[in-house]
Every structure is written in structure tokens, then in C-alpha cells.
Amino acid sequence: MTAQPSAPAHVPVVIIGAGPVGVTAALLLARRGVRSVVLERHRDVYPLPRAVAMDDEVRRILQAAGVADAFAALARPGRGLRLLDSRHRRIAEFRRSPEGHHGFPETSMFDQPQLERALRAALDARPESELIGGAEVTAVAQKSAATVRVAYRDDDGDHVLNADAVLGCDGAGSLTRDAIGARWEDLRFEERWTVIDVTTKAPVRCWEGVDQVCDPQRPATFMRVGEDRYRWEFRLPDGQGADLDHERLRALVAPWTDLADAADLKVLRQAQYTFRAAVADHWSRGRIFLLGDAAHLTPPFVGQGLCTGLRDASNLTWKLARVLRQGADERLLDTYERERKPHARHVIRLAVATGWAMTGGQDRAAALRRTAVSALCRIPGVTTLAGRNMTRALPVGPLVHRSRLGGTPCPQPWVDADGARTRFDAVLGDSFAVVTATPSTPTLRALAEGIGAPLVDAQAIRDDGTVAAWLRRGRAEAVLLRPDRVVLDAVPAGGADFPGRAVWAPLLCTTRPAEPVQRSSAP
Description:
The chain is of the alpha+beta class. The N and C termini lie far apart (54 Å). The mean pLDDT is 87. Helix 1 packs parallel to helix 4, helix 1 runs parallel beside helix 7 (305-326) and helix 7 runs antiparallel to helix 8. It contains 14 helices and 25 strands. Strands 1, 2, 8, 9, 10, 11, 17 and 18 form an eight-stranded mixed β-sheet that branches. It is globular.
């Protein structure tokens, strides 16, 4: 008899791409007890630097993924952004706080390969996840309502996996995006830039933040990334190549340092990029989802490319875990694109506006834009507002009831809990939580028990008053926090119940309890 081919192996989630977004998604799923296989065509971390900045909200996501301490060891706080004119005179300065709303520096500078190694080390400690390197995905197809088939090839031949869901974290050239028939929506920005990462022992004039040179002839960006690592980005005129010899590079960086001796400089990377702005017209089909650069492309001017992808992972993974492990309503997954796409579009448009208004663009209105930016930044309070984080309230919908705090993340101060000093998220736990502004009442205790959420009294957590003050500003007696720390609903002052319960309760209702999750030693 002819041997019958073996049935494809089954795994709850297949993640395509082991960059920071894919591995973070795997870690977040693992911490909720969901097994995954991560398929990556490269065998090791891509060794050259790319993303170099992260905001405090995204550091909180890394905390949830279990790599807060590892990232803290390789990051350095950034002081903010300065706008300079063509003669390097300061137009405006946007300061960033050393501790933001989420409990971390509002800007952190880092080396992406180091971040990726930290993420992979944490993934190695999770029994729920497996990373397969050297695996080229060749096909992704929805086979039934709850089954996605993934084919891939490695040195051992061709393989097939059946998954309950697939996360396409496979970048701008995403095969997953093609598999669901998604197309780019062009947001009308395209420029060629050269990016140069160097190490040098030569003295460099910098202020521990980002310089944005608003020069229509040669717009540029400069930042210090590490102890002796620096990045310059220069826009390329039409027809000009990206390759720079030592003398040409020396001339470009002269406002910051004198590289008279070639031995003082080591170029880690010099690459030409076409900065684009685009959003995929849809982010999912069935149980196949797009995350990160597979779903959106943004120019780097506000440092939100990687951050936007990590927000995608944070938003989707808790919903997917609740559906797969506890049998929650499938419509829960429909809220992913509905919540994330407007924020991604907002960030991209902000980056595009920054690119045109701050670097001047290439048209006759460039001088007018620079003059307007300079005048605007002299208005008291404008630079403070502009320097705040990229958090934007999620739109009202099934998982965000309209209120003053609805769709916004709660703060994360340091608190004293059981005699130890810890961050607020450690008190909240990994799932839903009800936070009250006053000592708990029987009604609030019943509300929390009814949705299986711990009840946290803001008056009893022994912080610096941050949480209680936040609730007062929001005129809330209590709030229901989602696992991603976003306010789902709020009991108004004097109220007795969450007003949106009839809308969100059916989506969150589960058919089976979640089994205990094995905790690793990762922080």
C-alpha cells in the first residue's frame, strides 16, 4: 500500500516573522498560556541597527512581555527633540520627561539588535513558544472558519502547519498581506534618505536628544544612540546616490563633529531608504491578521515605526488569547483593526506632517511652513503639549464605552504592595481589573466578581496619589481596565454600575475558565 501523508501538525498560533513585533506577540501570548510557533527566514538576529527610539507606552508593553529589566539595561533616556534651522540655530525644543504617564522615560534610545536578542532570550525561556529559524513561508490560506494552513520550507524540506490563527509580522513585503488580498492605501509621502550609523571616539556635540535640521536644501536628523554610537539621516536630492566617501561624510557631519582622522570613525551601516506612508486597506481575513510593517508604513520623523507595531501586538494578543483559551465571542477579534487602524493612521499623518513642516519639503511653501512652525513654538505651552507621548484615546466601540477616561490608558506609578515597592501593573495582574476611587462598596465588589476582575482601591495602594487624582479628573467612581491597561468603561461619580455593560459583557463572556499559566523567571 502507498503510505498516506501525515496530517499537518497543529499549533494554536503561527507567527510569521521574528522581528520585535513577532517575538513580542509570542511572549504576550505565552504569558496568557497560548502556544505559538514563530517562523523566521533568517537564522539569527539581523545585526545592523534600525529602530533606535521608543516611547514610555511601548516600554510598558515590553514590561508586560517580561523584558522590562533586560531592556532597561540596554536603553538610555532621550531628552527630546530640537528643531534647528539651516545654520543650526534652535527654532524650538520639545522636552521629554524622565518619567512619563506609563512609569518610564517618555523617550528611550536603544540598539535594535540588542533589543531583539533580549526578546529572543526571553522567548527561549517560555515553554509555550518555539522559534524556527531558516524557515521560508511559502503559503498561507484560511482552510475553514477556525483553521489556517501555513506551508514553509527549511533545510529539512517542506512542512505544513494547521493553526487556529496566524499573525503576519513579516514586514513591508508581507506574504501574509498578499494572502488576504490586502492592498496599500498610499498616504502620499515618498522621499529618499540615507541613514548612517557610526561609532566614534571623537568628541561629538549633542544634547542627548534628537536634532531635526529644517533645511530645505539638506534636511537632516541626528541623535546619539549609545555610549559612542550615533546616527545621521540626510535626505537625498533627486539623482544623487547614497554612497559617501570619507570626505563627503566628514562635510555632512561637520556641524556636530570633526572627523579629520578616518581612524576615529567606524561606519556600522550606510543604507538608502525610501520613506513611505501607507496603510493596508484591511488588516485581517478570517483568522489571519497583519501587524507592524505588514499593516502600515510610516516615515521615521516621530520615531513611531516599531512602536506602532508593538501596540498592534499588545492590542490583539489578549483578545486572541481570550477567544482561543476561554471561548470568548469571535467578534472580539473584529475590534483589533477597528481600534488600531485609526491610531496608526494618526501616527503616520503626524510623521508626514513633521516631514513636510519641519524638514521644509521641496516646494515654494517650505519657507512659510518653517516660519509658521517657529512662531507656533513660541506660544506658551505648545512645545509641552507637542512633547507628550503618542498615546491617543481608542475610538468608542464595543470595548470602549464613552466616558472622560474611556479608551485611554491608566497611569503606572510606583506603589507599595505587601511591603515591597513595585509598579502598578504588578498589582493589577494580567487580565481585567476594577480600580476604585473610594473604599470598595458591596456593589463594586459584586461588579468586580461578576466579571472575574480583581478590585483595586486607589486609596489603599500607597502610591503618590497619582491613580486617585487620575480618577478624580475623569470624574469616575471606578473604572474597568482591559488587560492592555486601557479603560473599557467607567462608573460615573455617584453611579452604581458600568453604563456600557450591556454592550461589552456579551463579547467578554467566556465558555470555559482559563487554565493556570506557568510563569517563567523572566522579569
